[in-house]
Amino acid sequence: MKKIMLTIMFAFLSVSLFAQTTIPITFAVNMKIQAEEGYFNPLTDHIYIRGNFQVDVGDASDWSGTTFTATSPNQDSIYSLTINFPDSLVGKDVAYKFVLNDGGWESLPTNATYPDGNRHLIVTAPSMTLPVAYYNDDSVLIVQATNILNVTVDLSSIYGTGKGFFDPNVDSLVFQGLFGNGSVVSGNRTLTANDPIHPWIYSTSLVIKDVQGDSTQWKLRAFPDSNFFNGGWEVANNYVTAIGPDSSTTEIPTFVPTIFPIQPALATVGHVLFQVDMNNAVNKYTQQKIDPKTILIVGVKGQNPVLGGWAGNWLPSDTVTTDSTQATLITLNDSGKNGDKVAGDGIWSGLVTFPVGNVGGPGLFKYGFYYAGEDTLNGGYHPMDNEFLDGSVNHWVDVKAGDTVIVNNKFGDPTNYSSLTGVKKENNLTPEKYTLDQNYPNPFNPSTVIRYSVPKSQLVTLKVYNLLGQEVATLVNNRQNAGNYQVTFNADKLASGIYFYNLNTAGFNATKKMILLK
Question: Are 149 and 241 in contact, with CB atoms under 8 Å apart?
């Protein structure tokens, strides 16, 4: 009998020693953010747990299937499931993910926490309850909003027929270049003309869905792009539109896009008065502000052949003209000469002539300056190319035949402060009388178009004044032939308020009011 009892006890101990125990591990994921953002529907969607442990716990294959489905018994958005791991996995590294329905694998960053893009745990006896995770590690509510964006542009300065104009019979203007975080746009991206009185006014209405509080960047582009400078893209920086609360409407104030048809060669000479404020100028190579009194040379170099065609080495020697070479860096001055208005005010200026036959239309350019020892910077390589840290940034100017374009810039600021982008003769008809039309649009921000007519050749001045009667801009001050003209006035540098524009000739004087509303 004693022998039988010993045999039974040995058998029991043997079973106890070699029986496999399990390690219950509880997984949990919070789906509240996903539900509120509209990515998860608790009534129809499912959450699965998949990983490289599935075969070890008795499933058919790893990283697949619906065997391990998490549930939310309390309907509190916390989905959980306890899985029994064999003790043979104790100490082993297990990789896993939560999966939404069949294909919604979590998207986790590859970093120190997720070196392979998966979640990990080390199996530890006797049991484990893992911290509640957020699906995709997304614990911040991101509210999506749908906004209406109304865009209106004034093409009057380039509107016409044939080469050198935006021709409505051939050309189109398209809303492009969205650079938001996954912006979704619907509606007609192509702007259309719907104003029979002002056919050069183009507009469209778009629906943009994006993250509320985020912003989306965009530009306009003209087609066929071969008919336009810069491949049809606007030259100016992107427009940024903030995404407001759901169902918000954003009205973009009517503006003149920086789109330029390719122009024929200049039939008559054109002039550009370059003016750049060197006060507070910073050298990009040192990121230090330079004392204006130490500046010896300020020059302009650019795309147009008159501005050097980007040739040269950005050295003082680029300013030298010989019998066989042309200067590739046009020098400006602060001595009250050649277009400079006030000597010694830190604003360097120069009136540059663009001859007949030269390239017309827009062109890119930059300023550069020199002071003692500056040529040793950047190892002496292109040391006067010292304006913009970003090599892709430039200023731009639209050269017009027969006109003087006035450019006002701040060194290092790419914003175009041209007070006049060109005076355009609208047609070859000779008007019977003087006229000065109301500017359009009005109110405006920041550009508006002024039209006027002169019945005979004479000196014409068109100036803008503030409420105190102080002159803030001279738009025209030269002899013009009889004709109908339009001027685009850009008031970027001016504050909101009421202004007056005055047309004055030998036989006519008229003033009208306009409102700048920023």
Answer: yes
